[in-house]
Amino acid sequence: MQPGRSLIGLPVETFDHRSLGVITAIDGERILLQPKFQRAFWIADILVRNVTRDAVTLHVNRKVLARYRHREPGAEAGIATLLRSPVRRISGAVCALASALVASSLL
Known about the structure:
This protein is an alpha+beta fold. The protein has helices at 79-84, 86-106; strands at 11-13, 19-27, 30-34, 41-44, 48-51, 56-58.
């Protein structure tokens, strides 16, 4: 996220362009989202993919968002849960493959 810039009031959408609501609070590494006609929930800021003047986009799509929603701050997903996400698994596999290729080229 961009330091020194207030994100309060910005709309938030998932990677598949589904509207989630607006940011109503930021507490350290946590973001409070307020959807229309639903209860507010917290997510970890590590899920933020892009911030523009008009909106915040998350790395996750609507189907897996439930894994990362928390009613209380500080209860967000730990690293183990984040590593189970499809994006993290794919990027982890790519890193492992790149490391193996580099190691084999050094031999």
